[in-house]
Write a structure and sequence with these properties.
The chain is an all-alpha fold. The protein has one domain. 73% of the residues lie in helices and 0% in strands. The protein contains 14 helices and no strands. α5 (80-107) packs antiparallel against α7 (120-147). It starts with 19 loop residues before the first helix and ends with a helix. Residues 47-281 form the ABC transmembrane type-2 domain. The chain crosses the membrane at residues 45-65, 80-101, 121-147, 159-184, 191-210, 256-278. Keywords: Cell inner membrane, Cell membrane, Membrane, Transmembrane, Transmembrane helix, Transport. InterPro entries: ABC2_TM, ABC2_TM_bact-type. GO terms for molecular function: ABC-type transporter activity.
Length: 289
């Protein structure tokens, strides 16, 4: 009877894979996880994917009347509805991607304990589900912008695309960090809920950046405010969707290109940190769950 030997490197120690690169190689598994997440979320639901329209619509109406009508921001900002919704879609995507990625490992504990697969798949699938829900909101935003005379240039469209790429990287990076830590300490979920609660107010979604600059001036508070990646990302969306509408009096943030570059750098560093933390704790997930 003959025996055969396998070449060195055929077997890979669990938890010692290639991280996010394994997600790219196993796109079919990612597709299955995304389908599973969507089915579980809308199981027994009457409206199903229509909730992707209902939730942001209710959120928009509440903010529009509370801030736009009662606080009269619709008089201070031309086409305030487009301005507001351009910021809301950013915060909604960030909140869903970050929040779901934080709960991804714990929520899939049965799979984590039974079989080995790149655990980053769960975090990336949360990002994809958030993207699927982002599309209907983007469609509504585009329709609303078109009704107000939206006529963007290629540069403005590119700014919107750049903003979304930075947003996705930043959301995934934070999701990897808190998703891994959440396995060890469930307090991470509460911390994330607090961060998401202030995210809408920590960036120029309900107000203009000029209101912040008028109060804090060119102080360290302004620097910290701009170093929040969501702030330049929201401004990129305003530049893409609100600035090209009729009557919009767009005033660009001073040195916006610099702040966008710093936001991109912070987002990439966050993703690198997230992958490092995730892989350091990956080997303990099954036993902790």
């Amino acid at each position: 009877m003959s025996t055969s030997t396998l070449p060195a490197g055929t077997f890979v120690e669990p938890g010692r894979g290639s991280g996010l690169l394994d997600v790219v190689r196993q796109r079919f598994l990612l597709k299955l996880l995304v389908r599973k997440d969507l089915r579980v979320r809308y199981r027994g639901s009457v409206l199903g994917m229509l909730w992707s329209y209902v939730k942001p619509a209710v959120q928009f109406v509440v903010y529009y009347f509370a801030v736009g009508v009662f606080l009269q921001m619709n008089r201070a900002v031309d086409n305030f509805a487009v301005y507001l919704f351009a910021g809301i879609v950013v915060v909604n995507f960030f909140g869903e991607a970050f929040g779901n990625a934080t709960r991804a490992i714990v929520g899939n504990n049965a799979l984590v304990k039974k079989i080995y697969l790149p655990r980053e798949l769960f975090s990336v699938s949360a990002l994809w589900v958030a993207f699927i829900h982002f599309i209907p909101q983007l469609v509504v935003l585009v329709i609303g912008a078109l009704l107000t005379g939206w006529s963007p240039s290629l540069v403005q469209l590119g700014a919107g695309l750049l903003g979304f790429v930075i947003l996705a990287i930043f959301s995934l990076g934070l999701g990897l960090v808190f998703g891994a830590v959440n396995v060890m300490f469930r307090d991470a979920e509460n911390i994330v809920d607090l961060l998401l609660m202030v995210a809408t107010w920590a960036s120029p979604v309900l107000y203009q950046w000029t209101a912040v600059r008028a109060v804090v001036g060119d102080s360290w508070v302004w620097t910290v405010y701009q170093l929040n990646p969501l702030t330049p990302i929201v401004e990129l969306f305003h530049y893409c969707f609100w600035a090209p509408t009729n009557g919009a009096q767009y005033v660009g943030v001073p040195n916006l290109g610099t702040w966008v570059g710093l936001a991109a750098l912070i987002s990439v560093l966050t993703l690198v940190l997230g992958e490092w933390v995730f892989r350091r704790l990956d080997g303990r997930f099954a036993q902790e769950l």
